[in-house]
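To: structure desk
From: M.T.
Subject: fold request, one chain
Message: Could you run this one when you get a chance? Sequence is below, nothing fancy, just the single chain.
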Amino acid sequence: MKLALVADLHANREAVTAVLAHAHSQGAERHAFLGDFVGYGADPGWVVDRLRERVAQGDIALYGNHDAAVVQGALPSMTTEARQVVEWTRSQLDREQLAFLAALPLSVSDGEALFVHANAYAPGAWGYIVNRSDAVRSLQATAARYTFCGHTHIPALYHLTGTGKSGEFAPAPGVTIPLSAQRRWLGIPGSAGQPRDGNPAACYAIFDTAEAALTFHRVPYDHDAAAAKVHAAGLPPRLAERLTDGD
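Reply: Done. Structure tokens follow.
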């Protein structure tokens, strides 16, 4: 089965539309949406409704920190810009949409894989995996062979051997990486809705469960249109700039 891994959609309708179309063209049969469906972007209601449809069809969806902030209130660690968007987003969602976000799980185990927004060692504390040592801590917190998470907005792949040796890859788009059975793996597909690695193209990955292989993808989309919506909604201008700059 080909499983599309899509993280940090951030209310970006244009990016999500492009990613779902690309995943379909690549033969994706199921999707795992790794949290943060709202925040930053101007189309939270549309994105939440698409997620509700996908979950009803058997896809996986997880609770992210921005989803939690919209449901429960802004987190202390959030920037001023993020807090402003939290309040605006809450005003854009109806009761059913908020209830859908509130009911999302922090993590899902499915076969040999664990899906979580931030990390495996403390999913609800929202700690970032930004280096090998963070990845090892997460891998040591679960027995899953494959862990997939989002949160950092930057594509990455880490592994841990049975003897405790760790390594990392900087994945190249479109290059399939075999995931050796002799190692355990942690993959971060990057952000669909707000990439932060200097490339504005949307990020996602496809995990081929039959081949035990992972392919990272970049999908160009109309980021200027998404940025124009951010401006039109009266959201912080910097959030529009991030879409066009990819940082």
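Reply (cont.): Helices lie at 13-25, 44-56, 65-72, 80-92, 95-102, 132-140, 223-232, 237-245. Let me know if you need anything else for the meeting.
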